[in-house]
Amino acid sequence: MRAYFAAETELQRDEIAARQLHRLSEHLRPGDKKLRLSDVRKLFELLRDEMDGQ
Predict the structure, then answer these.
(1) Distance of CA 19 to the CA centre of its chain
(2) pLDDT (tens digit, 9 = 90+) per residue, 6-28?
(3) How far apart are CA 40 and CA 14, in angstroms?
């Protein structure tokens, strides 16, 4: 997550989010909803907001 927010370009952020999407998708069960790149970006934003609030 630190690398995602430290990335200098949107392309670098997309690459980091895509790697995390792949890793997270490996843990989905057959009936689970597929994750999208936008889901991972939103997750990073929510986690950052949660960490800032502590």
Answers:
(1) 8
(2) 999 999 999 999 999 999 999 99
(3) 10
